[in-house]
Amino acid sequence: MMEWTDRHCRFFHRLLTRRALIYTEMITTGAVLHGDRTRLLAHDPAEHPVGLQLGGSDPRQLAECARIAADLARPSSGATSRSRSAGKWNC
User: Fold this and answer.
1) Taking a C-beta distance cutoff of 8 angstroms, is the pair 62, 56 a contact?
2) Which of 16, 49, 51, 61 has CB 3.0 to 4.6 Å from 90, enough for a Cys bridge?
């Protein structure tokens, strides 16, 4: 959902339940590759687990955006490598 499930919405939904997988708003590959990545992919560790919704049609661009998102998630997630490998951050 574009321009709906922003950081504030996800944080509120996480307060409602810890059991649900919540998702980012739909982010296009062009926005991630050419826009403000830090702002677009920002999340609070309290939101976890959170899934990233990428929109695009070029497999190479989708793969690059998934790598970028994973790289940005590592330092700010507050999660250990074990929890990331167990699927705590989904791309």
Assistant:
1) yes
2) 51
CA distance 19 to 40: 24
Other beta carbons less than 10 A from residue 78's beta carbon: 10
CA distance 48 to 45: 6
Decide if 58 contacts 66 (C-beta within 8 A).
no
Read off the pLDDT of residues 70-79 as tens digits, 9 standing for 90 and up: 876 654 434 4
Which residues, 6 or more positions from 41, have their beta carbon under 8 angstroms from its beta carbon?
24, 27, 32, 52, 68, 69, 72, 73
